[in-house]
Amino acid sequence: MDRANVTMDYTNFMERRRDRAIVSILSYKDRACNQYLPQQVSAELRKVILDELNEFCESALDVIEGSTNDLFVERLEAIHALLKEQTEGG
Description:
By secondary structure, this protein is mostly helical. It is 84% helix and 0% strand. It contains 3 helices and no strands. The longest helix is centred in the first third of the chain and has 31 residues, at 3-33. The N and C termini lie far apart (50 Å).
């Protein structure tokens, strides 16, 4: 099996896992949390869940495919650390 086929198998696997995770998390949110949340908050939470899981999947596929740039990852981690620091008030 050549690398292109292996990568495609990983891509399909990751996309299926992402989709199952999204369905599971959003179903639970709808079932157990929506009754306690204002509609706008529920919609915002849904967007955050979708955005973060999709971003995670894309990043994982980049790592699998070996298309990540170490400097880019280091800079992205620095940005995330700064955002976390600002969010936590530290």
